[in-house]
Structures are given as structure tokens and as C-alpha cells.
Design goal:
This protein is an alpha+beta fold and 139 residues long. Helices cover 50% and strands 12% of the residues. The relative contact order is 0.17.
Amino acid sequence: MAEYIFNTTFERSKLMRKIKSNNTKSELLLRKSLWSLGVHYRLNVSKLPGKPDIVISKKKVAIFVDGEFWHGYNWEQKKLRIRYNKDYWLKKIERNIQRDQINAKLLTEQGFTVFRFWEHELKRDIQGCIDKITECLQQ
């Protein structure tokens, strides 16, 4: 893979370094809610495609908490607003979307039920997200 180099400001670089990939507020909210219901899970299982954020092994459930920018929420509209390093970001985010689809397919083929929640979904309606998961666990 060729390395992509572009100029950016120190402030932007500093801001991008602060973005977390694990233990985000939305992910912690979901984990605490599941744990309070007595659901046992494992985190970031690297042996599974896509390294799901939460895995409920007993019921073969894989859960991903997706950030809106990195995973392309409302992508057709948002990509039009990218102004800087457009070539880089379009390729990166579109590759992330493609990889998410491939990993979901691979997990499904292994018998997993896959849930993908956007961060804003968890913040706005955590109970609705929990209900979807617990309904699956009761089957």
C-alpha cells in the first residue's frame, strides 16, 4: 500500500490524534447497559473479521459501534462537504464502508448475528438499541 502524504496544519493534526477508536463514550454506554442486564461479552475479538467492538460468544452476536465520519454515515451527502485532502478522505472512507460490508458478510457466514450501531443512535436511543440486542439474545 502506498503511503499518502499531504500537508495539514499542526492544529488539525493534534485534533485528529485525539480521536479514539476504542472505549468511546457511545461504546462505554452500550457496554454498561449490557453489563447491567447481566450480559457477558468480550471486547475487540481480533480473531473475528473486523474485530467487533463487543462479542457475545454464547449467542454468536457481534456488535460494532461506528463513528459517523469514519464509517460513512449519510456518506452521499457528507462527501460533498469535504474540502481538504478530498482525494485521500474519499478513498479512505469508501474503503472503510466496503470493509465493513465484507466483514459483516464474513461474520454472517460464520453464523453470527451482526449489529452495527451509529454513535448517534446509541446517544439518542440506547434503550432501542439494547432492545434489538436482547430480542436477539432471547431467541
